[in-house]
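Open question from group meeting: does this chain pack into something compact, or does most of it stay loose? Before anyone orders reagents, we agreed to write out a predicted structure and look at it together. Recording both the input and the output here so the notebook holds the full record.
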Amino acid sequence: MIRIILADDEALALFSLQKQLEKLNGGVIVGAYPNGAEAVEAVLREKPEAVFLDIDMPEMSGLEAAEIIMSRLPETEIIFVTAYEKYAIKAFELAAIDYLLKPVSTQRLAKTLARLSQARAAKTGLDQPAVRLSTGTKEQITIRCFQTLEVDTGESGPVHWRTNKAQELFAYFVHLRDQPVRKDALLELFWPDIDPKKGYTQLYTTIYQIRKTASAIHPGIRIVSGDKGYRLELNEVDVDVLIWEEGLQTAPPLSEHTLARHLQLLELYRGDYLEDCGYWWAENERERLRMLWYRHAMRVAAFLETQDNAAEAFQLYFLIQRRFPFTEEVYWALIKLFTSIGDRVSVERQYDMLSQMLFDEFGTKPARTLEQWYRERVV
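Structure tokens returned:
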């Protein structure tokens, strides 16, 4: 039998729900509580399979209670009970296994119990389980942040987030890595223009959605609740940005024998950090990583020149130029390389491009020393 805990501050509603569950023989009720705090304490102690939570309770709402329960016991099934209109339910129905509208009908409650039984059967292997990764899987999960946010599970198809806000908040947690972040800071960042009470409701709902999605990706991905905030744990899960930067830091000096490794590091940078997502809070990190790639790419291109490998040097310089069209240094590198092979037409083209870029973007022209160098060798 499924072990159940109930929580509702309305005594009549709590009594009615308890009697209906007993009538349907839907499980063993191990506790019924008039507020969220007592319910959470009981859930952590009794570890039931399912919890019925009224959303609108004083002091600790059902959403806040669900958030705490999911952080400690992620396998617990949550059923929200609410008197809210349907516009509010849409925020919850995808996150919980089910929701019930007050007054709860016996027929509707029977459907909820059927869903609970199916979920329990799937977890115990009595039914066909959904595809799910475990901590013992050989598949390596990688969160990719270059260009866009992706979770590479080794399976076909992208991860589907419940809402855009859930995806962005998850990306923010990944951005902070292991750093804790306060709830009030999250409200100010993600819900700055709404009433704090509604903001907390949105926050708890979004955290709940992230936990449900993350647990389906890999059980090692956990959002841990702390004192007034959260922290993301990525057990056995890689992040491409961390792998790439560590690769840069540990890479051996450039040489003929290590060139392949350095070229591979350049290729691993698929695009700027979360560029397609447009998250403004990622701008500083995006620029920092861009400059790391730029400096490494310029060193590798210069090394290719010393190896008399002009073709690959040109290819890399052109890639740098596309990504950093307003950086004077790369234009001069190309001008000098074209000069070394006697390609006067390309030298003049690059110089003209540089002059136009400086004028359009900065209202200046090439430095006098560089202009003199160009005229002495080309004009």
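Observations to bring back to the group:
The chain has 15 helices and eleven strands.
The radius of gyration is 29 Å.
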